[in-house]
Amino acid sequence: MTSGFAKIPQDLSYWQKQRQPLFADLAWNIPEQKTGHLALIGGNAQNFSSIIRTAEFLDRTFPLKQVATILPASLRDKLPASENISFAPATSGGTFTKSHELRKAIESADFVMLAGDLSRNAETAIAISDAITASETPLLVTRDAVDLLAPTAAQLLSRPHIFLVASMLQLQKIFRSVYYPRMIMLSQPLVPAIETLHKFTLSYDATILTFHEDNLIVTSHGDLTTTRISDTSYMPLTLWSGQLAAKIAALNLYNPNKPLEATTAAILFE
Predict the structure, then answer these.
(1) Predicted TM-score (pTM) of this structure
(2) What is the per-residue DSSP string for 63-88?
(3) Which of 115, 129, 169, 181 has a 20 to 30 Å separation from 40 between CA atoms?
């Protein structure tokens, strides 16, 4: 975290608009040989299908050496055995609890995606927070995982290599949790929202994708891109299905030092 706030350039020189791919070369940077270990963490005793679908999407779309899916042990009897699915100890309610297995799954991966369906269980929040802060593995947080970790956002944002794929409402929770002095508002026009996100990522080392005023906004280290949703294959609801977040995770795994570029490229990657 840096101290103070940088002055916003009057010409908004940090902002690029993506109509055609801004970083098309990254699509060619995907290795031909299978490489990289990406871990998906999520699910609970009642809901896990979206995690499985996201894992299958990653496996057929990218040449990853391993897509590991980590689910709570409450699901062990509900799924067929698979070498790519493992289980970590669960609470009596069927969600993750604090465990060595969960920490090991995160530490052994090259990139981790908290894919959601984690519930709002306080014990699970503690378990996930403990596991991710013990590691510097690049981490993407999306869907209800953002809500789960929002109360401890200061701890989350203090670790390196953080990616948030979050709605504006979820970002409000993050901003409030860290007592950020400038709130992001749903009623704001696009430019004020962009200015706030620009400042936030100068203060916190996070890469953020959100959606506002019909634009997908990506910001990292103060730099920012926007892409009109009409120029993409997405609808507002499909942004949060898990597939876009999965593309972001994979492209950042392959391009570890280009978070803005890789995250922006994921939007138009087909």
Answers:
(1) 0.93
(2) --SEEEEEEEGGGGGGS---TTEEEE
(3) 169
Q: How far apart are CA 250 and CA 77, in angstroms?
A: 29
Q: How far apart are CA 111 and CA 53, in angstroms?
A: 18
Q: Is the Cβ–Cβ distance between 197 and 173 less than 8 Å?
A: no
Crossing angle for the helix pair 259-268 and 243-254, nearest 10 degrees? 140
Q: How far apart are CA 251 and CA 246, in angstroms?
A: 9
Burial class (CB in 10 A: 0-12, 13-18, 19+), 90: buried
* The pLDDT value given to residue 4: 43
Distance CA 266, CA 61 (A): 12
Name which of 41, 103, 17, 35 is nearest 255 in CA terms. Answer: 35
**Which of 155, 196, 193, 151 has the alpha carbon at shortest distance from 173?**
151
Residue whose tokens read 């929040």:
125
Token pair belonging to 175:
């901003």
Cβ contact 263:248 at 8 Å: yes
CA distances from 121 to 61, 69, 226 (A): 32, 20, 34
Q: Which residues contact 138 (CB under 8 A, 6 or more apart)?
A: 110, 111, 112, 161, 163, 252, 253, 256
**pLDDT, position 119:** 84
Query: How far is CA 61 from each of CA 110, 251, 261, 263, rounded to the nearest angstrom?
Result: 18, 11, 19, 16
Q: Extract the tokens encoding 40.
A: 């998906």
